Amino acid sequence: MKKSLDNKKILKWLATVFLIWRLGLEVGVLLGGKFLPQKGYLVPSVWANFDGIHYLWIAQNGYGLYQQAFFPLYPWLIRWLAGFIHNYLFSGLAISHLTFFASLYLLYRLLLFDFSEKFVRRVIILLLLFPTSFFFASFYSESLFFFLMIAAFYFARKGKWLVAGIFGALASATRVVGIFLLPALLVEWWEQKKIQNPKARFAGFLRNTKIQNDNLKFRILQVFSIFLTPLGLIFYMRYLAVHWGDPLLFAHVQEHFGAQRTGGKIILLYQVFWRYFKMILTTKPDPLYFVVWLELLTAIGFLALLIWGYFQKIRLSWLIFGILAYLLPTLSGTFSSLPRYVLVIFPGFVGLGLLTEKYRWGKILYLIFAILLLISTAFFTRGYWLA
Q1: 352-358: long-range contacts at Cβ-Cβ below 8 A with a sequence spacing of 24 or more?
Q2: Which residues contact 23 (CB under 8 A, 6 or more apart)?
Q3: pTM of the full structure
């Protein structure tokens, strides 16, 4: 790990930027209330509309019609906390805020293994200013998943594979892309254990030689710990099979959420890009036109950042997770919600940090992101769909 500040200074800096970010979101709320007409359902809170309504319902009443698309850990935690404080809305927002702050701390520590303090702070600022980062403060599962995912990578990097596997299992019970932590953590394990001579790797593994003096039994236990990761998804699939007779119901109900999603048919990435280029040429300028552009630019931008990250030697385990988490939602035939989904693809933000560091236009990007974040927050909190 690079030379770092002590925990007190790290937490002080994170608390400062977190508070500035959160106050900035409230500025967006005020701007929306002043300049935008209300659209849609804003009760019980401007921070709990769209998917937030579903999470709130599940936490209070259990799963309703088509709500199986929303994975269970976040609403279950809300129900548990609400049992103590007797307020479901506050419970969900508290979980989102606390887990997001914790994830920023773990991300800071994780990146310090490979990068300088200055660069780590650049990445975190880019994440906070990203135009859809307001979802981290919303009644959504993004913050919880981000925390669990970063924790899995962090403890894997420290060689604590059982802890990493447990966090991976919790992540796969929060979002379906949590399952991609399995190949990512396996690659991380191999990168940490591999030996220099490729021809001797397999023989060395079996003979208990040249791999950091680990014994075979201990290595098997480490790999077994990583394979805890899919348990969250497996348990949820079992729950769906028992109650509704379809272990893949979370995928099959997707078509009921609009945006021309497919519930079973796979659409390739180039087909989705072609569809969006046609929409750009045919959609009339209105709030929907802004969303189409936001989705398309996010899709192009993050694909480019992940490719750039590969050539910049970002850790392979991070890139594997990032690429798979990027591709999965596009297979439904749309980039709808992608500006929100990419929030957890932290290797994309690392790539963006490297890009701005190399070409020295980071401050301009900060300004552009900040303006777009205010606009996006204003629209979202007035009931306009963004992601």
Answers
A1: 352/123, 352/126, 352/305, 353/119, 353/122, 353/123, 353/126, 354/308, 354/309, 354/312, 354/314, 355/305, 355/308, 356/122, 356/126, 357/119, 357/122
A2: none
A3: 0.91
